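Design job #97: recover the sequence.
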């Protein structure tokens, strides 16, 4: 991905952080999910008084996109920090990595971890989720 495209996703993820509903952890996260067709779906984390119903920013973005008919994705950018101030990379939790595994090609799907427009790193889903279990594992094969 070009630097300018990455920086655009970072700006969208940063904007989304301000929509985070995180009254319990105070850790605000924004995500910007890029489809193969070039559209961007943004998401924030949404917490809950009962804690377990909380949803991460990444899954909010995926579920918005999938519910609009999207199925192919090329990248996601994540920015997070206490009280909306990003000081280090926020990497997706295990549950979100598993959701990515459902819809993305592990070798080519890019995960952009960003602190700001100048400080980011790009990894593949395979790097963050080696030996992941996905739809391919349920394919029946000829013996
Ligand atoms: O990659 C991450 C990591 C954490 N969170 C959320 C979940 C919870 O609301 C808060 C603290 O874990 O941050 C995300 O949305 N994405
Ligand atoms: Zn998560």
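Job complete. Output follows.
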């Amino acid at each position: 991905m070009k630097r300018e495209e990455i920086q655009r996703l970072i700006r969208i993820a940063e904007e989304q952080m301000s929509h985070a509903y995180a009254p319990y952890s105070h850790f605000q996260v924004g995500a910007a999910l890029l489809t193969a067709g070039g559209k961007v779906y943004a998401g924030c984390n949404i917490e809950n008084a009962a804690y377990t119903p909380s949803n991460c920013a990444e899954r909010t973005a995926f579920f918005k996109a999938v519910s609009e008919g999207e199925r192919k994705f090329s990248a996601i950018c994540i920015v997070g920090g206490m009280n909306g101030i990003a000081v280090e990379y926020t990497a997706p939790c295990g549950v979100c990595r598993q959701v990515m595994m459902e819809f993305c090609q592990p070798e080519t799907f890019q995960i952009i971890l960003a602190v700001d427009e100048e400080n980011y790193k790009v990894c593949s889903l395979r790097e963050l989720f080696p030996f992941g279990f996905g739809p391919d594992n349920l394919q029946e094969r000829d013996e």
